[in-house]
Each structure stands twice: as C-alpha cells, then as structure tokens.
Amino acid sequence: MTQTRAASRRIPVLVTLLVALIAAVLTPGRAEAASLQEVTGFGSNPGALRMFRYVPDGLPDGRPVVVALHGCTQNATGYGTGSGWLQLADRWGFSVVLPQQQSANNASSCFNWFQSGDIARGQGEAASVAQMVDRQLADTAADASRVYVTGLSAGGGMSTVMMAAYPERFAAGGIVAGLPYGCAQAAGSPYVCMYVGATQTPRQWGDRVRAARPGYTGPWPTLIAFQGTADYTVKPVNMTDLMRQWTDVQGADQTADVSDTVAGYPHQVFRDAGGRAVVETYSVTGMGHGQPVDPGSGSEQCGSAGAYVLDVNLCAAYRMGRAWGLG
User: Fold this and answer.
1) What's the fold here for domain 36-323?
2) 205-257: per-residue pLDDT in tens?
3) Residues recognised as catalytic
4) Would you call the peptide bond into 219 cis, given omega within 30 degrees of 0 as the criterion?
5) How far apart are alpha carbons 33 and 58 in whole angstroms?
6) pTM: predicted TM-score of the whole model, two decimal places
7) Could you tell me the residue ranges of all domains in the chain?
C-alpha cells in the first residue's frame, strides 16, 4: 500500500516534467541579440573605407538611420559602443551605420576631413559614406528623410563634409570636437585649423558649404555641436566657427535665441527667421578632447568611458537623439 501511494505521487511529477520537456522542444528558441555586422559590396567605395552596421532585432521598416564616424585611433565597434549610439538604437529603435577608416588611408585611422580629394561630392571618403547610406536605406527600408550623421574629432570633421557635400541625404548633423567644412583649406593647414582656427567671416564660412553642393537650395541639415573648453587638440574656436558657418547657411544670425545650461554646462540655440532651431551648441566646461558620455541606466544616460570617451555626466548621443526626435 505504501509503495502504491508513492508511485501515485510520482506520476503527476513525471507528467509535469514531460510537459515541460515537450514545451522546450516545441517552443522556438529566443533569437540572439543583434550585433555589429560588416557589410561588403556597398558600392564602388572610392575612399576604400569599411562599412559596419547595427540593426536591432525586429526593427520595423521606416525607422531612422544614424551614421556615426569614429575619431582618430578608434574603430567602429569601440566608438559605437562607447559613445552610446548602439545602446540608444536598442532603446529607441533605429539603425546605425559605422564607417571605419583603414590604416592604409591614414596611419592614425583618422578620416581625411582635410584632403580635397576626400571631401568633395562624388569623390573619395565622402562618396564611400554616401554609398553606405544608400545601401542601408535599401537593406532596411529605413526612412530616407530621417538620416543623421555624427562623429568625434576627425569623424566630426567628416560629418560636416557629409552635411555640406550631401545635404539632401541628412536631416541633421552632430559634431563633437569637430571642424567646420573647408577649415583646412581656409587655414592653409589642418593643424592651423585645429590649433588656431581660420579667419573667416560667417558669409565666407557659409560660401564654402554652398560651393560643395552648387545649385542646391535646401533644406540644409541642422547642426548640434559639442566642445570641451579644455580641448587642446581641437580648440574651442572651431565650435564657434561651426556655429558661424551653419547659421549663415541656414539664413540665421549669430546671436543666440536661447542661452541656458544643461547638466550644468552652457548651452545655446540659434533659430532662423521662422523660429526653427537650426544650430545648437554645448560648451562642456573643463572637458578635454573626447566624446561626452554619462554611463548608467538612467533615462538620460548612455555610453561608457574610455580613451577619448569622457564621463562628464552628459551623454552627447542622448542629447542629439532627443533633438532629432529619435526618442
């Protein structure tokens, strides 16, 4: 009698285990998380760059695209992760294109924002990045009206190249410790541009952009810029010149319509005659050369600190994304 009762108690347990086993076999396994993938054959690639991209799992059609360009000595993977862009892509639902420089083009892996053959429409590295955008739009059925370009340092310089040479492809640009378009040519040297700046009026700056896309009547991409006040690699005057260049392109004056602070840092907004914010600047007090991040799990936090990725309690990628309506 005791053995019979024990057996009867074991039957429900065995049935439960059997049901669980069948469910495990029949239920599809959870897909692996998205990862950075290299894309080849994206065009003629005259700049000989590599293309990487990140597409969150289950991303629907019609989502935005962010093109993120790394700084010198960096690569696509490190910049995409450190800057916070991949984290935000998962959070908000957009894809990221990450061009990568090759040492054969530049020994320090800098994008060649200062080379005339790489900054003109239809040529060199600029054309390669444009081809990456076209490939991404075709492969992901993304929203062609919501493509954005951003980058750090040399990547920031190449971002202004894309805004000037291919303005119809980008709704906005986000420049971090970067340079105005044509700065090396205006200053006579990339190093003079970086360390001293170029002497140009707003109209002269704007004319350089307009000459990059002759006959284009707009709309031009809007601009957000971030600059450390203690940056001795790309001097803060370059953000001032970016503001002068892109307010002129947008037909706005150089007087800020909003001057306040964000996370304790000076922040300005410049509006056009219609009241639209066309240029926005963040002056990160005491920050050296790098990408501002704010690691953590808070709603406004993103990124992870590393070489040239600096924890200053302000995540530049988050601020750009919010301004661009990604969130």
Assistant:
1) Rossmann fold (3.40.50)
2) 999 999 999 999 989 999 999 999 999 999 999 999 999 999 999 999 999 99
3) 153
4) yes
5) 10
6) 0.89
7) 36-323
